[in-house]
Design a protein that fits this description.
Elements: H1 10-13, H2 17-23, H3 25-32, E1 42-44, E2 47-50, E3 53-57, H4 70-83, H5 91-94, H6 98-111, E4 115-119, H7 122-131, E5 139-143, H8 148-157, E6 160-164, H9 169-178, E7 185-190, H10 202-209, E8 215-219, H11 234-238, E9 246-250, E10 260-264, H12 266-275, H13 277-281, H14 287-302, H15 305-323, E11 335-339, H16 343-355, E12 358-359, E13 361-363, E14 374-378, H17 385-401
Parallel strand pairs: 3-12, 5-6, 5-7, 7-8, 8-9
Antiparallel strand pairs: 1-2, 2-3, 4-10, 9-10, 11-14, 13-14
The structure holds 4'-deoxy-4'-aminopyridoxal-5'-phosphate.
Length: 402
């Protein structure tokens, strides 16, 4: 028996993880355009500064402008003074604080659910909203375009997966009809799709799954605070809160904070608290971010003008975009994509916008479906009409140029 020459052995043929990091083509391709992880030196509301240049922020999800609302900031400060920076541990072992339970009761009531659990990130909430409930032997039927957090939950669950065409209840119906009627099923979708700005066709989705005993999980990260009466979310918009078993989402959009939530019936949430690894083993949401979210919820209830301004701005922005013939993928919400059709065009327009002092987000395939390369913009209540006019003027000029 001779010695295996290291360079001939199969083991050695595979690069080590460190070598993979050094030579990975995808990393190089992604960094080539260099629009990612830009360094922002300063922020004041809808204004950010990059390399000393003042820019209009069109990339945030701060739909109501609450992240810079003085009362929201004040609430975060007073919760920090009272409770400290962190609870430094998970609630199962370290206990729930009054502000956790208060926030959960308020959120549950807000969404028309019995109970709620908050986590330190929306990603954790959405991942656990799937992985806590679905398991091996189940079938998860999922909209193709859902957020990465939900795919992570599906991956962890061990359930088998069937995709349905984006926001297409007819395709959902046909997928459901081919599934084993005895297998427990979960249907996963979003209330508002953040790249597309589409609203879930909830009544038709419910129709399509009727009679299949499907457990419905809706991520309403971008619908919460935007859709429905007082911003109570997409299910409330359709008056269908009871039809969705679990609503999950993020506190980092309309509520201007950080963290996430899962809401459902008391039984379902008790199951989550005792089964979800992310819930059991991750440190609790911080006092400051919980305090900020609590104040934002109160503002939604007491000051309807923020939501009204958001929708006024959204209508105005879309009207301007229609006048220049921009393709906005039929967005129905303040999340407004500008479809440009190729990576190069997206890069050129994005770079041109940056030079003109407009901070937007480029999204290219595979982050979006093929030929749907786009620039994502989002309207907030804090933008002025002049901001929106300036943005559309710049988009028109750059689209003509490229
Ligand atoms: N779901 C959706 C639809 C999202 O857009 C996001 C954030 N981009 C998340 C979940 C995760 O939320 P967070 O950023 O709070 O972790």
């Amino acid at each position: 028996m001779g010695y295996a020459l290291p360079f001939l052995s199969k083991r050695q043929a595979k690069p080590t993880i460190l070598q993979r990091c050094r030579s990975d083509e995808a990393t190089r391709a992604r960094l080539k355009y260099n629009p990612w992880y830009l360094h922002i030196e300063k922020q004041e509301g809808t204004r950010v500064w990059v390399e000393g240049q003042e820019m209009v922020l069109m990339s945030s999800n701060d739909y109501l402008g609450f992240s810079h609302h003085p009362e929201v900031i004040g609430s975060a400060q007073s919760f920090t003074e009272k409770w400290g920076i962190s609870t430094t541990g998970a609630r199962l072992a370290n206990g729930s604080r009054t502000f956790h339970t208060e926030l959960e009761e308020r959120l549950a009531a807000w969404m028309g659910k019995e109970a709620c659990f908050v986590h330190s990130a929306g990603y954790i909430s959405c991942m656990s909203a799937v992985s806590a409930f679905a398991t091996k032997g189940d079938v998860v039927v999922v909209d193709r375009n859902v957020h990465s957090s939900l795919w992570s939950g599906i991956g962890l669950s061990g359930a088998s997966v069937e995709r349905f065409a984006h926001n297409d209840p007819f395709d959902l119906r046909s997928v459901m009809s081919t599934e084993d009627p005895d297998a427990p099923k979960m249907v996963v979708f979003e209330g508002v799709y953040s790249m597309e700005g589409h609203v879930a066709r909830l009544p038709e989705i419910m129709d399509a799954v009727a009679g299949h005993n499907a457990f419905m999980v809706m991520d309403d990260a971008h619908g919460m605070g935007v859709m429905g009466p007082q911003g109570r979310g997409t299910a409330a918009h359709f008056g269908l809160q009871d039809g969705v078993d679990v609503i999950c989402g993020s506190l980092s959009k309309s509520l201007g904070s950080v963290g996430g939530f899962v809401a459902g019936s008391r039984e379902v949430m008790e199951y989550l608290r005792t089964h979800s690894k992310q819930t059991i083993f991750s440190a609790a949401i911080s006092p400051a971010t919980a305090g900020a979210a609590l104040r934002s919820l109160q503002l939604l209830e007491e000051e309807p003008e923020h939501l009204e301004r958001l929708w006024e701005n959204t209508r105005y922005y879309k009207q301007l975009l229609a006048e220049i013939g921009a393709n906005i993928w039929e967005s129905e919400t303040p999340a407004v994509p500008i479809l440009l059709g190729s990576k190069e065009r997206v890069y050129n327009v994005w770079r041109g916008l940056l030079k003109k002092g407009i901070f937007s987000v480029p999204a290219i395939s595979p982050a979006v479906p093929p030929r749907k390369d786009l620039i994502r913009t989002a309207v907030t209540a804090a933008h002025t009409r002049e901001d929106l006019e300036r943005v559309v003027e710049a988009i028109a000029e750059l689209c003509r140029k490229f």
